[in-house]
Amino acid sequence: MTQNNLKAVNFALMFFLALLTAYFTLENTASTTVNIIPGVSGSLPIAALVIISSGIGACGAWFFASWTDRLRGNEIQELADTKNRMKDLEIDLNRIKAKQNNILPFSSVFRDQTSSVEKDVA
């Protein structure tokens, strides 16, 4: 699915849930007793209780999503740091190879000649 289709589905779902909540609040105006902690209680309409509990649930979901994104961001940053370190090490390796070739420019030629002599002997 494309990004626009997902946004439309998300909007339709949220709109439907908002309408459903509004209908529920209109139909359930009766009060109920809420026990917060032992010995402390209050009376609230069922609709208000549903709205409050859904708000607390939404805040919990938002907190969990932001925490997960933060952890994922840390993992992505560690991966980027590792890639940068690998590039630096590769540059250092190439620099060392270049220095080695500058110091002993004919060492590879001698190695090639000795290996060809060994092949001729065999």
Task: Report low-confidence residues grouped into runs of 5 or more.
Answer: none
Q: How many domains would you count in the coordinates?
A: 1
Structural class: mainly alpha
Order of helices and strands: HEEHH
Rg over CA atoms: 35 Å
**Morphology:** elongated
Helix percent reads: over 70%
Number of helices: 3
Mean pLDDT: 81
Distance between the termini: 66 Å
How are the strands ordered across the major sheet?
Answer: 1-2
Strand content: 5-15%
Number of strands: 2
How would a crystallographer describe the biggest sheet? 2 strands, antiparallel
Structure description:
- With 122 residues, the chain is mostly helical.
- It has 3 helices and 2 strands.
- Helix 1 packs antiparallel against helix 2 (46-103).
- The model has no long low-confidence stretch (mean pLDDT 81).
